[in-house]
Amino acid sequence: MKNLTIMYKSEEHNQSTPTNKGFTSEGKGSESFASRTKRKTNKYHKLISSSQWMALGVLFIGICVFFYTNHLFYKYDENRIRLLTHLNNEQSSLAATLSDGSIVCLTKNSFVKCSDKFNNGNRLVEFNGNALFDIAPHELFPFIIDMDHVNIRAIGTNFVIDNLYNDTLILSVKQGMVQLTHKTDGQHYYVNDGEALKIASDGQVSYSPISSSELFSNYIKSVRFNNEALNKILYIVNMNDSLTISLSPAARRYGEQRLSIELDNSSPLNTIRQLSEALNLDYIQNEEGYILLD
After folding, report:
1. Which CATH architecture is the domain 89-215 placed in?
2. pLDDT in tens, 38-90
């Protein structure tokens, strides 16, 4: 029994020794291979990381260029949209409501150019020709009309400018007061209710009473509207002293309805008939004028 036990221990010892040596030898070989693999992997990851950063950089630059270019086009479109030109090429007057609520009625070959939004109180328009202006009042910001040789300044008033051929300018004020400034010498002229200021082509200036009240109604005897609210249309046609059209309480819901229509405002009956047909409304007449009924 003792001999067997000794032999068993000896065999165990002999078997373990080579195994340990073999393990040690394999361990050294495995460590060397792992180190080389790790270095290659790190190098590979570094290459991937650099490529990713380059791709991200290119993508970021592309995004910046896109938004910058888009911003430039947006600003261009925005500025282009802001400038509106109302030009009349037809015989009938063209009535237009500006963004501040002011109204202009242009005769043939006349135009007004303005912003679609008068920002920061900037109520400035360019104008040439003949037109009736009805200026919405504003205590802080005057309405300024820029012409070739003069500037016209108004707070809230109703007047006519006749300057189609640029040789003679006539400013006729129905209500309020208007200031005219000559660009050449900076001279100011003030025109009050019922007055007309005439500046001849030779520079001569003269005042006179308005010759006829028909001067204003002539601008709306035949008047055209493009996508205007009914309330504004009635306001303009009612500038004619011989005509008053109103909405009944039930028909007031049509006040903001927009119409594109040409009205013969020389006859009150023609005007009310055209409006009633366009809106499919009835009307009645009383002592004050006509009433559109729902």
Report:
1. Sandwich (2.60)
2. 555 555 455 456 666 677 777 777 676 555 555 544 443 444 446 789 999 99
Specify the CATH number for 222-293; select among 3.30.365.10, 3.10.129.10, 3.55.50.30, 3.50.50.60: 3.55.50.30
170-213 pLDDT, tens digit per residue, is 999 999 999 999 998 899 999 999 999 999 888 889 999 997 77
Specify burial of residue 154 (Cβ count, 10 A radius: 0-12, 13-18, 19+): buried
Question: The pTM is what?
Answer: 0.71
CA dihedral of 226, 227, 228, 233, whole degrees rounded to 10: 60
